[in-house]
Amino acid sequence: MRNILRKSRRAIVKIKNSAMTRGIKNSNQRCHLIAGCLAGVFTKIFGVEVNCFETNCAAKGDPYCRFVVREVKVNGNL
Ligand SMILES: [Zn+2]
Fold first, then answer.
1. pLDDT, tens digit (0-9, with 9 covering 90-100), for 36-56
2. DSSP secondary structure string, 9-68?
3. How far is the CA of 27 from the centre of ligand 1 (A)?
């Protein structure tokens, strides 16, 4: 984990050699399980509900998988 910003409740996580992508190249993103786990972990760390999106994936040929964690913003006008 490289960047965790507790105050703004954001984090960027990079994973090299993920077991989810090992041996897979030129495919669609595959790390939904990891993204879900990271969302759960950071919801606990930050104390608010967060989303986690994978922006880069080794399964697509990227050098590593990169995940962005952000606080879920609820629109008060709903
Ligand atoms: Zn991935």
1. 999 999 999 999 999 999 999
2. TEEEEEESS-TTTTT--S-----HHHHHHHHHHHHHHHSS-EEEEEEE-GGGT-SSEEEE
3. 10
Task: Delimit the domains of the chain by residue range.
Answer: 3-71
Per-residue pLDDT band for 7 (boundaries 50, 70, 90) equals confident
Asked: is 3-71 a CATH 3.40.47.10 domain? The reply is no
For residue 67, the CA-to-ligand 1 centroid distance in Å is 8
State the Cα–Cα distance between residues 45 and 22, nearest whole angstrom.
Answer: 29
